[in-house]
Amino acid sequence: MGTLVGQGHCLTCPIRPSSLFGCLKESELSLIEDFQTRVIKFETGDIIYNEGESLGLIYTLRAGHIKLTKFNNEGNAQIVRLVRPGDLFGYEKLISSGTYMHTAEALEPIELCQLSVEKLNHLRDQSGAINQAIIERALQQVMKTEDHLTQVGLLKSKPRLAWFLLQWVGETAEAVSFPISRRDLAQYLGLTIETISRHTAEWKRQGIISESKNLLTISDRDALQEIANS
């Protein structure tokens, strides 16, 4: 169920620039002056919602990382998306009165904002910018998923893993949170645990990457980029 931290105030929220409401112009900020969310914390392994549930809620991740998993009729799981701070998830509830399409699970201690679909739809009626931002985020996710499937389908194991690590870390040279287990990473990239362990061990020996306590650093970006392009 998670632990309620308190009420979030979207107008003054520190992650607003990267959230859904970052699209608003100064003249539209009054729309969210009284808009409140419930800020909730979950621990590693906690389930935010299950595939097939219908809660009338969507979420913005404030801190930590989440995996979205889909199950087939035999109960086999496939990770379809990794959610990062600032991301909107569960937004299928905005375009359908049906159920959640995935199971959302915390990969580490997380904090999120819980938004009412009813209240957010009211804001969409008032602001074309918010409605457009929701559409754009959904389209961006479709494009990211398409890119992921392309890389998984076309790249060999080394370039595939190198590509993912570069995407995850971004442009920073600092250590970033990397709470993904070898098992989850293997499933997400269509590789074996042994293959991932072998490649990462090799890159550590070569000084290309380093890992410590769920933190990942790319020490030699050019070398990893060369592997991704091979």
Quick structural gist:
By secondary structure, the chain is an alpha+beta fold.
Quick tags:
230 residues; four-stranded antiparallel beta sheet; five-stranded antiparallel beta sheet; 2 domains; alpha+beta; 7 helices
The major pleated sheet works out as:
5 strands, antiparallel
Helical content band: 25-40%
> Largest beta sheet: what is the strand line-up?
1-2-9-4-7
Order of helices and strands: EEEEEEEHEEHHHEHHEEH
The amount of beta strand, in percent, is 25-35%
Shape: globular
CATH topology of the largest domain: Jelly Rolls
Number of domains: 2
> How many individual β-strands?
12
Question: Which CATH class of the largest domain is shown?
Answer: Mainly Beta
**Can you count the helices?**
7
CATH superfamily of the largest domain: Jelly Rolls
Q: Mean pLDDT, as a whole number? A: 87
Query: What is the name of the CATH architecture of the largest domain?
Result: Sandwich
Q: Which structural category do the helix and sheet elements fall into?
A: alpha+beta
Question: Unreliable stretches, pLDDT < 50, 5 or more residues?
Answer: none
Radius of gyration: 19 Å
Q: Topology of this protein?
A:
Layout: E1 3-9, E2 36-42, E3 47-49, E4 57-63, E5 66-71, E6 77-83, E7 88-89, H1 92-95, E8 103-106, E9 110-116, H2 117-126, H3 128-154, H4 157-169, E10 176-177, H5 182-189, H6 193-205, E11 209-212, E12 215-218, H7 221-228
Antiparallel strand pairs: 1-2, 2-9, 3-8, 4-7, 4-9, 5-6, 5-8, 10-12, 11-12
Helix pairs in contact: 2-3, 4-7, 5-6
